[in-house]
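Look over this record before class:
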Amino acid sequence: MRININGEAIMLEDPESSDEETPVPDSDSCKTDELQRLFKLNIENSNEIAASPNRACGLYLSLSHDSRTLAVGLSQREVQIYQISTNKELTLNDTHVNESAVRGARFFNEDSNLCMTCRIDGTITLYDLRIKKPIAFLEDCSEGTKKTVTSFDINQNDRVICASTEVQKSGDSFVLFYDVRQREFLGSYWECHSEDITNVRFHPKNPDLLASGSVDGLINVFDISQSCEDDAMQYCFNVENSIETLNWHFSPAKKDWISCITTTNDFHLFDVEDQAQEVEFSREKLTSEIRRTSSIDCNVIAAHNNQSEFFLLAGSNYNKGECLRTLRYDNKGFVPHWNLQHNAQIVRASVYNEKENCLITTGEGGLITVWSCDGDAQEETEPSKPTKRRLHISGHRAKPY
């Protein structure tokens, strides 16, 4: 069970189920042979390690552009840096302890030696991994005090950092912008959302295109090259539910799509240019798609891009998250994809390495798990032993442009 105290996730003893109101234990909705027919690829983890001895919750993951370095944000205010070998072994390389809770980690798109972390107190720190030290701090004190930050991202050409905030004492929530080269605050938007802004994501190819999602249910898409917030606003979608995460995708026709997962584990997909919703999947529907029986325990984690398509990572919180599966998007629907075997924690974050077809997860057990999703993996016919784990100890508001 996870609770939040002063912005940090604190672990309690895991109950048998993620929700006391669950009337019956969650289980598969079909027999084993049917599961194997539907989820044609059963995947065992190729490597798994514990990030800390006190079971800190893994909350954030970021993979470097060369896929050889991994940043892990933990609930105990730490960001750990791991090196990934060619056979996907993880080696702890460095640990940074922050003054307040971590709100994310991001590698530069062009330089895998540069990594940024963001804290809830509004400080963004730039690290040079070669010297294992911070080389810059970015903050916004334009209204006297730093703002409470919820998420951040860096644009495709590594020139602009964007961060989102909770509603401040002024009654406004902010999208903050920083210049990476000058290492200074650029300005902010504050009229686009009426509640806490939970997520910001830059477009993977267009450095000027930014999406933001909020508790107010709105997804806003901005062109940040414009001179003011009103001109920057390009599109607005109303999900009518609190938004947890966002991601960009490309349609088969190479059009921009944007997806969101809500705080109630629903999934929405929008065509940006046509300003239309492609699909909406409720938590109950996704529970059925992963072939489980309890929607209360359904945990929708992330949408990941895989070449010209994308897939959804979801599972069940029952029995410490043992069930973990993926669904591939296909023609306005989802079809069974991968079945990840012997998962040992409720997953809270994941990254996907498209080049090597490798998925990395972390979560409430403090484990970092590497899943090699190669096509030559064999279907499981007999129960196999999970991979052995290793333990690491370890006033004026200016607008941008």
Remarks:
- Residues 120 and 179 are 20 Å apart (CA to CA).
- The first strand starts at residue 2 and ends at 5.
- Helices lie at 32-38, 229-232, 283-289, 318-321.
- The longest helix spans residues 32-38.
